[in-house]
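Discussion board: Methods & Data

I've been asked by a reviewer to show the raw model output for two of the constructs in my manuscript, not just the figures. I'm not sure how much to include, so I'm pasting the format here to get opinions. Each protein appears as its amino acid sequence followed by a line of discrete structure tokens. Is this the kind of thing reviewers expect to see in a supplement, or should I convert it first? Here is construct A:
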Amino acid sequence: LPPGDIRNCLTALSSDEELLTQVFQYRFGSKAGVNGHSLGNLLISALTDITGSFEEAVAESGRVLAIKGRVLPSTLHDVNLVAEVQSKEKQTTVNIAGESQIPLAGGKIQRLWIEPSNPLPYPPAVQAILAANLIVIGPGSLYTSILPNLLVPGIVEAINSSKAMKFFVCNVANEHGETDGYRCSDHIRVIEQHLSDIHFDVIICNNNFDPKLPEGVEWVMPDAQFEEQYSIYYASLVDKDFPWRHDYLKLAEVIIDLLEERTGPLNKS
């Protein structure tokens, strides 16, 4: 099981000092003999061997980082991502396997699936979804982080069965190799293409396009047709230092405000 997204979720929930989080995210150089892996990935892998369980390794890593909350994988089965990619010449399509290989294919992703296609969902993850007050999907890599979890049988069914509000957070900027040229509506279109029965109560999009982006990075822009079909909320969400990312405090404030607007004040104790 790839630990990268799990590592990112763990560090995001860490309540410990910033240094510990930086250590967990630290990536060794190629000369270190560990193929450029991050320390967090190595720790999760080591704990998996020691405890004999990926599930327990994630839990123990959370204790090391003193996280607030829980990080739950969508499945404990070993699955592989496969994408059908259309070449730039638009003459042929090829199947590309592997999370790290898909963005490097250099074409337009037509569809994505997991192999095997029927892994069992992780029961605590399903239970957490069903018990949630709010479900937030995104931001993140559309094809290699968001969709793979939703493709696990039982996850979307749990989301649809949950009484929670469902928010989708659209990325601020496009991701090269995955969503080049995508607008806000394209992100939703891709999700609905793969999961026709999923529904979002609110879609949150950035509307601050003033900061200058690095060369080759493009804003994810809204469009009028999108606004006619969905409940959209626009806000300035960019990080002033890293404008291709969300300012997590601004985003959190918007999410809480929208939730309270629809369900009433939260008990913040």
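Construct B, same format:
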Amino acid sequence: MLVNAMDTRCVAWVALYFALTFVAWRLDLAVLTPVLCYFSFAGACITHNSMHLRTFVCDHTEALWRHALSLTYGHPASTFVPGHNLSHHRHTQSSKDPMRTTKVRYRWNWVNLLMFQPRVAWDVFRMDMRYMALKKHCGEPYFWTCAQEWLVVGLAQMALACLCVRKFVLYVYAPHLFAQWAIVSINLMQHDGCDKTGINNSRNFTGSWVNWLTFNNGFHSIHHQNPTLHWSKLPSAHACHVKGAIHPNLEQSCMLSYMYKAFVWPGKRVDYLGEAVKLDPEDQDEDWTVNHAPEGVTLEDYDVTVTNLAKAVAVMPVKILCPTYSPIFHID
């Protein structure tokens, strides 16, 4: 059933997340919250890999898998497509990358790390919604796939919150919040102070432990060169195509050591050459979704409106019960 047998560990990690969440909730073990934070973050790393290369051969199993991933880190898995694949990968660190690291400009670098995810969250969400609206306008199934994932995550969280708000915050919300913060914040460590294009556009963390825990998320340069390469093959591909070709400062053997130097002591924001990061004047996000619009359709034709979102929520139960039902919505 798996496209690559190495993904057995991914499935096991997601299953462990749900099992540990059940145990923590049932026995009310707050000591498990940090463990759940890790497994939720690991789920985000697995989601990142899965959205570049599918995990299961069967389409129905793949759809269920994406729902499981969405519940693991508390965010629709399919939103990785516009927020990461189509913007960050294709327009790294440019005005078309809503996750560019130059958006945070605090004096203390540790504040840049802390505030990076909150700073870019709305910009990424806005682009995600606009892309979803465009796909709905074009009659493509991506919109309904994403909307179903949103609904499942939302209903699951509301149900758990109704059961017990305190347990929900401890064992569900806090791990999800950490996972979403961490998977975005790692982008700051991987790209800040690097070139926008070329071989030196990513910082790599090559330590064995960090890559085992994050499913080789540390090998970032080769991932940008070949996004669809399976995560299990990244270390060997890095050794063949990246090691020795990039600047040596972009190969960090220990992530914790790098974080200490970058955010604690001396805690200075420097580029990969060791010089202070020079920030250009802050610019506005450039809408990359225009490249995906059909001829004759303007941005205003598929912009997100409250009316359209209300329509989608209203019809969603019918769509889940009957996936082949596809009402036609006209963009106002």
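Answer (T.O., handling editor elsewhere):
This is acceptable in a supplement if you add a one-line summary per construct. For B, something like: Residues 80 and 319 are 22 Å apart (CA to CA).
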